[in-house]
């Protein structure tokens, strides 16, 4: 787990402006850190092996809690995954996206 934390802390997490109101979150892209591709893939595998399914509106995603965030990917295969998303937990849980009041407000410095 220490390796995953080091990876998470060492890469850029860019705020996803397109979903700022509906689903505030950050993402990192595999190709931004070609020297850390193995760690990227380890995190993808960890999310899938240790996560659980939630519904984002009508789409199921496997999410995994690490620290104050939950993480998810969108591609079916690990080798096809080039992006990892993360969002703040609300009261220790992902927000319920059928209830817009549960969506967290991102910190101002990350906008």
Shape: globular
Poorly predicted ranges (pLDDT <50, ≥5 residues)?
98-111
Strand content: 25-35%
| Mean residue pLDDT | 85
Radius of gyration: 13 Å
Q: Provide the number of structural domains.
A: 1
| Structural classification | alpha+beta
Question: The biggest beta sheet, please?
Answer: 6 strands, antiparallel
Secondary-structure element order, N to C: HEEHEEEE
Percent range of helical residues: 10-25%
Number of strands: 6
Major sheet strand order: 1-2-6-5-4-3
Question: Layout of helices and strands, plus pairs?
Answer:
Elements (H helix, E strand, L loop, with lengths): L1 H9 L3 E2 L10 E4 L7 H14 L1 E5 L2 E8 L2 E4 L10 E6 L23
Written overview of the protein:
With 111 residues, the chain is an alpha+beta fold. It has one domain (2-98). It contains two helices and six strands. It has helices at residues 2-10, 37-50; strands at residues 14-15, 26-29, 52-56, 59-66, 69-72, 83-88. It has a six-stranded antiparallel sheet, covered by helices on one side. A hairpin with a 2-residue loop joins strand 4 (59-66) and strand 5. The radius of gyration is 13 Å and the shape is globular. Residues 98-111 have low confidence and may be disordered.
